[in-house]
């Protein structure tokens, strides 16, 4: 019997997120959308039994993780309203299923980060007082203490150490090339900058070793991200690895003797286990994308999430002593490797001779037939396409499209210099990289050069707007901008302070860099648009406000364009009232968005 491989079947394949171990290392927890929406699960890594713990308590779109309390019974998690990311923090009992609201700040984003060593207080990030800063919450009294009051955001990981210090990352400047590791006493009485490799390096803290001796850190001072061990007693840093590949720290083992490091090499991520004392590296040799790694059962096993282009995500266990890998939860589909289309990892030349890496997927090619093609631009801009199971690409390939996913300049994974190439140049060099992706497709003998479209979400939506306006003469045939940005200045004006900080780092101030903002804004080139455009946006989007799509639509109407499904000078516009910055983790929401993409490009190309 021939399998029917439909859009719904492909888009319904579940995925995991936020894999973690409890404090004892005898429970593995994760979010999983097996039931079509995200729920919290706990797996026993010894018996391999797992259970669904929540039943509808989690938000549909997951934008924040959870923290185990010291009792290994409670977790703290966040909940927002229809994707608005205005998170409140909740306390959930995994045994009784009781959920208690801990914070009530409907206009603030709040993220649980860590728990105090005595288990009595929660460390969390919040922008309840304008900028994103560190706070603590007494779990009994609900009293809140603000630890930092910076005018720039506190980003990323932070941890409460046994020694009474809290370690975190902060950049006191607007220099995007600089982040430092800081420490603050748990009562806020003292604060100091701990690690500053240079003023032009991003130095980031990840974790404190269980013995309290080391901090695992990362720095891009050499031009690529390198993992280091900061000795809290001597203030010295020991760098791990040979400096050939981008490597970022993950988890210390519970005995503090080993450190998991994730190596990013040619769009694949694989775990490396470093011996803390000797610096010796053990490569596990996985292919594709392996992340969400954690230790369990007295450091005997490594739990991981892994996928490759022909293998949807699996949850696995790796035996450190025997080097044996066991799949704990296989891919949740009856489709097999042969049912998925193979990925090609290619590099194409761009306008300045620089090679741009990309993944390419094709349908089952028939001799002499030419196919419509798409360039799919990732979000970020500091994002990356990996050699992984790519649901977008599988869906489009099965629907008869060739799809190219470029890691344009500004992407991560190819060194610091490459990542910084689009500073104060959004829609410039990176925009030309997208144009040259189209030119690469045009040269393939199985691609119809008159049926090439562009699409993407977030920064990819921004780039779609740019391609159809600023680069309208390049001959695009259609485009779909999903949760995109059409004007950098209006985007800045509507953004929260921590998002404004990101824009200032990348673009500078509008007053001093007006040309940069205008050159990267599709609204300044909208008169050039020639081909149909689809716009999809969630009303509650806090990252790329819905007004960014609305103002582009309104200008099209002013220019005489019509909202129609066919014909010249026509556009298609969809808003979701129950969604924010996309809702990819909710399978129902995912399917409805995929259907809109596919339907649009089938009609328009």
- Poorly predicted regions are none
Query: Which strand order do you get reading across the main beta sheet?
Result: 29-30-32-31-33-34-35-37-36
Query: In the CATH classification, which architecture of the domain at 341-604 applies?
Result: 3-Layer(aba) Sandwich
**CATH domain topology of the domain at 341-604:** Rossmann fold
Strand content: 35-45%
Tell me the distance between the termini.
32 Å
What structural class is derived from the secondary structure elements? alpha+beta
- What is the global morphology? globular
User: What is the helix content?
Assistant: 10-25%
Mean pLDDT: 95
Rg calc: 24 Å
CATH level 1 class label of the domain at 341-604: Alpha Beta
* Main β sheet profile: 9 strands, mixed
Number of helices: 10
- Secondary structure: number of strands: 37
Report on the structure:
The chain has 605 residues and is of the alpha+beta class. The chain has a domain at 341-604: 3-Layer(aba) Sandwich (Rossmann fold). Helices cover 16% and strands 36% of the residues. It is built from ten helices and 37 strands. The strands form eight sheets. It has a nine-stranded mixed beta sheet with strand order 29-30-32-31-33-34-35-37-36, sandwiched between helices. The longest helix is centred in the last third of the chain and has 18 residues, at 587-604. The model has no long low-confidence stretch (mean pLDDT 95).
Keywords:
605 residues, alpha+beta, Rossmann fold, 9-stranded mixed β-sheet, 4-stranded antiparallel β-sheet, 37 strands, 16% helix, globular
Secondary-structure map:
Layout (H helix, E strand, L loop, with lengths): L6 H5 L4 E6 L6 E5 L6 E5 L6 E3 L14 E2 L5 E6 L8 E6 L5 E3 L8 E6 L5 E6 L6 E6 L5 E3 L7 E7 L4 E6 L9 E6 L5 E5 L7 E6 L5 E6 L6 E6 L5 E3 L6 E7 L5 E8 L2 E8 L5 E3 L5 E8 L4 E8 L2 E9 L5 E5 L13 E7 L5 E7 L9 E7 L13 H8 L3 E5 L9 H4 L9 H14 L4 E11 L1 H11 L8 E5 L5 H7 L2 H11 L6 H6 L13 E6 L8 H12 L3 E2 L6 E7 L10 H18 L1
Parallel strand pairs: 31-32, 31-33, 33-34, 34-35, 35-37, 36-37
Antiparallel strand pairs: 1-2, 2-3, 3-4, 5-6, 6-7, 7-8, 9-10, 10-11, 11-12, 13-14, 14-15, 15-16, 17-18, 18-19, 19-20, 21-22, 22-23, 23-24, 25-26, 26-27, 27-28, 29-30, 30-32
């Amino acid at each position: 019997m021939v399998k029917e491989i439909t859009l719904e079947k492909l888009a319904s394949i579940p995925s995991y997120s936020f894999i973690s171990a409890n404090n004892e290392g005898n429970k593995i927890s994760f979010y999983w959308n097996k039931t079509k929406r995200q729920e919290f699960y706990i797996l026993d890594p010894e018996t391999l039994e797992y259970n669904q713990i929540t039943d509808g308590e989690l938000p549909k779109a997951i934008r924040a993780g959870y923290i185990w309390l010291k009792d290994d019974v409670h977790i703290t998690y966040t909940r927002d309203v229809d994707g608005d990311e205005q998170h409140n923090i909740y306390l959930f009992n995994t045994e009784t299923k009781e959920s208690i609201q801990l914070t009530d700040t409907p206009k603030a984003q709040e993220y649980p980060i860590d728990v105090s060593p005595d288990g009595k207080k929660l460390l969390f990030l919040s922008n309840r007082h304008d900028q994103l800063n560190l706070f603590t919450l007494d779990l009994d009294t609900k009293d809140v203490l603000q630890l930092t009051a910076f005018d720039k955001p506190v980003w990323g990981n932070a941890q409460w150490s046994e020694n009474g210090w809290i370690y975190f990352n902060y950049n006191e400047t607007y220099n995007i090339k600089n982040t430092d590791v800081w420490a603050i006493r748990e009562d806020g009485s003292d604060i100091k900058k701990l690690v500053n490799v240079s003023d032009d390096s991003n130095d980031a803290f990840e974790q404190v070793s269980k013995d309290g001796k080391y901090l695992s850190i990362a720095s891009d001072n050499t031009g690529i991200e390198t993992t280091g061990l900061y000795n809290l007693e001597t203030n010295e840093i020991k760098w791990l690895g040979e400096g050939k590949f981008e490597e970022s720290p993950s988890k210390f083992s519970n005995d503090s003797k080993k450190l998991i490091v994730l190596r990013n090499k040619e769009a694949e991520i694989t775990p490396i286990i470093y011996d803390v004392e000797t610096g010796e590296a053990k490569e596990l040799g996985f292919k594709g994308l392996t992340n969400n790694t954690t230790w369990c059962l007295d450091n005997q096993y490594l739990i991981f999430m892994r996928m490759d282009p022909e293998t949807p995500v699996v949850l696995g266990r790796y035996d450190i002593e025997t080097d044996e890998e066991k799949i704990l939860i296989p891919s949740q589909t009856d489709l097999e490797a042969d049912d998925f289309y193979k990925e090609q990892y290619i590099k194409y030349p761009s306008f300045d001779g620089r090679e741009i890496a990309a993944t390419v997927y094709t349908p089952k090619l028939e001799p002499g037939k030419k196919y419509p093609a798409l360039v799919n631009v990732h979000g970020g801009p500091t994002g990356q396409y990996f050699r992984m199971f790519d649901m977008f690409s599988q869906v489009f390939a099965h629907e008869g499209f060739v799809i190219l996913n470029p890691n344009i300049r500004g992407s991560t994974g190819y060194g610091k210099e490459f990542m910084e190439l689009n500073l104060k140049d959004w829609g410039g060099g990176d925009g030309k990289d997208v144009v040259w992706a189209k030119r690469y497709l045009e040269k393939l003998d199985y691609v119809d050069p008159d049926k090439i479209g562009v699409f993407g979400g977030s920064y990819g939506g921004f780039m779609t707007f740019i391609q159809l306006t600023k680069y309208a003469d390049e001959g695009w045939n259609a485009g779909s901008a999903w949760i995109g940005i059409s004007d950098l200045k209006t985007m800045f004006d509507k953004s929260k302070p921590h998002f404004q900080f990101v824009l200032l780092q990348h673009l500078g101030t509008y007053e001093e860099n007006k040309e940069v903002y205008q050159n990267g804004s599709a609204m300044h080139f909208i008169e050039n648009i020639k081909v149909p455009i689809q716009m999809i946006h969630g009303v509650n989007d806090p990252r790329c406000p819905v007004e960014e799509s609305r103002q582009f639509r309104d200008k099209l109407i002013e220019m005489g364009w019509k909202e129609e499904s066919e014909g010249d000078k026509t556009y298609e516009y969809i808003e979701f009232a129950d969604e924010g910055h996309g809702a990819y983790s909710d399978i129902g929401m995912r399917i409805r968005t995929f259907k809109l993409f596919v339907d649009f490009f089938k009609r328009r190309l």
